[in-house]
What does this fold into?
Amino acid sequence: MAESTIWWLLAGTAIGIELVTGTLYLLMLAIGLAAAALSAHLGASTVVQLVVAAFVGAGTVMGWRSYRKTQPLDAPAGANRDVNLDVGETVQVDAWNPDGTASVKYRGAQWAVSNVSGGSLATGPHQVVEVVGSRLMVRKL
It folds into this structure.
């Protein structure tokens, strides 16, 4: 079996494992393995192929890691509008309970509501800031 075939099989295995686990780092390492396969096609020695696999794989991993560090962190799922469409919606609070909670009708059901600002509990329209379980965390508009 040719050396390039072994590199391609290793790259395919890494991609298969990446698809199962969902980690992007294995895909970066698979790029390094594919680069080693290409160097084998070009007639490079085994040592050069190993060096190419190591440098390209490590370089892509470090490049992806540095790229991810420059990106802003995602909000938690309960406060992320992309995950939970209730975030940002408006509810009408008619009365607050003595414990700082309220019950509002929202989307055809009764929901428990808590105030996130910690200030005075005013009635009126409030914006949903986060969803924690079945409780809406709101702030006064």
